Amino acid sequence: MRCVRLACVLAIVFCFFATSTAAVSVHPVYEPIHRIDTPKKVVALTFDDGPDAVYTPQILEVLHNNHVPATFFVLGSQVDKYPKVMQWIAKAGHEIGNHGYRHHDLHKLTEQEVYDDIKQGERSILRTTGILAQYYRPPGGVMTHDVMNAVQASGYDVIHWSIDPRDWSLARTASVIAKSVKRDVSPGDIILFHDGGLNQRQTVAALQELITYLRQQGYRFVTVSQLLEASN
Ligand SMILES: [Zn+2]
Fold first, then answer.
1. For residues 80, 139, 119 and 124, what is the CA-based torsion angle, rounded to 10 degrees?
2. Please, is 22 exposed, middle or buried when counting C-beta atoms within 10 Å of its C-beta (0-12, 13-18, 19+)?
3. In angstroms, rounded to a whole number, what is the distance separating the alpha carbons of residues 232 and 218?
4. SS3 letters for 69-111?
């Protein structure tokens, strides 16, 4: 009787360890990066939905005049439309991220379709600049199970953002955009802007004010890669 009881206890213990070991060996849950924790006063400016023939050059000029590096999450369809502007971004030394080929609503795509869109975007960037992007930002920040699987299969790290001044909204003036960043910013943030999409005049206008302000506050501007290195 005692032996039976001991056997039962051993079986339970074995099952417990077997389950824990299995749980450990399962792939970790894929987490997008929103920001990093750091005491260093660094922020990453990111621009989505370009390249755009009108607003990307204006943004590049502001960044150049202020010696600020940034990260551009470009759409492959826009890269094919404006290859010269894409090459200008790359030559200026900014980091290039993949935002997919088209700005799809990812909720409506299958895992395979998301994967194909990511790879098509990747090919456009590679063909035009020779750069193989390392980071992917899903349109709208959508992260369904299918998107996560597609991203893992494609080998990208997913970068979201921690500050969104909603600069795509035509109702937001430059001063509203600047004010919302100034209010919320803290070390390690990833700030979301758009160089493509609708009318990004308000983004261009807010940018100079924000760069000046953040520098006065002691912030340094880095690319997404440099930001991730700062977390080590
Ligand atoms: Zn977008």
1. 20
2. exposed
3. 21
4. CCEEEECHHHHHHCHHHHHHHHHCCCEEEECCCCCCCHHHCCH
**167 labelled catalytic:** no
* Residue 171: domain span: 42-230
Dist CA 114 CA 99 (whole Å): 11
- Residue 222 is predicted with a pLDDT of 98
- Distance (angstroms) between ligand 1 centre and the Cα of 66 equals 25
Query: Does any domain span residue 144?
Result: yes
> pLDDT tens-digit profile of 78-130?
999 999 999 999 999 999 999 999 999 999 999 999 999 999 999 999 999 99
Q: Is residue 100 part of a domain?
A: yes
Ligand 1 center to 161 CA (angstroms): 12
Residue 20 lies in a domain: no
Phi, psi (degrees; rounded to nearest 5) at 73: -90, 95
pTM to 2 decimal places: 0.87
CA of 46 to the centre of ligand 1 (A): 11
- Domain of 145, CATH number, reads 3.20.20.370
- Determine, yes or no, domain membership for 193: yes
Count up the domains in the chain and report the number: 1
